[in-house]
Write a structure and sequence with these properties.
With 160 residues, the chain is of the alpha/beta class. It contains seven helices and four strands. 47% of the residues lie in helices and 14% in strands.
């Protein structure tokens, strides 16, 4: 509980210029694939959530729905969720990626990001994670120019 009360706001670790560069990384990745990437940062959970046993995974699942990451034509949206208070990173992928990308691959991306976060490289951690997610999406949903691709989700990071 104390971690959630004492965590600095997301904007301290991710100022506006950093958020713009993260949005740029999402846009660059989406030029290589037909998937949709959403990056969400939450400083801390509320007291009611913490006392109710909400953990980072459950909150990421909730955010996946609230941010409508599931609502893409090819069911290939991916949420990268960061909960700063718990130093937790979760990736939630839509059903179009079931059987294509396994849990170990998503976990490896989280581990890569966690390593950079521990080093204090918040922006670099976010961009590295987005690039790794984009690599997987480009492998399974390549942008080949034969199908129109609409940008279905905003590229700007979401501060929850």
């Amino acid at each position: 509980m104390l971690r959630h009360w004492c965590t600095l706001p997301s904007q301290r670790r991710f100022p506006a210029d950093s958020l713009a560069r993260i949005a740029g990384a999402i846009a660059a990745g989406e030029r290589r694939h037909r998937g949709e990437v959403c990056f969400a940062i939450e400083s801390a959970l509320g007291a009611r959530q913490v006392l109710g046993g909400v953990d980072a995974r459950r909150r990421a699942d909730e955010a996946f729905g609230c941010l409508r990451v599931w609502d893409t034509a090819a069911n290939n949206g991916v949420l990268v969720y960061v909960l700063l208070a718990d130093h937790a990173i979760e990736i939630v992928a839509d059903r179009g990626l079931d059987g294509r990308v396994d849990a170990a691959q998503w976990r490896a991306i989280c581990a890569l990001m966690e390593e950079r976060f521990r080093a204090g490289e918040h922006e670099r951690a976010a961009i590295a994670g987005i690039e790794a997610v984009s690599d997987l999406l480009a492998e399974h949903f390549p942008q080949d120019g034969t199908q129109p691709d609409e940008d279905e989700l905003p590229n700007r990071p979401r501060l929850l």
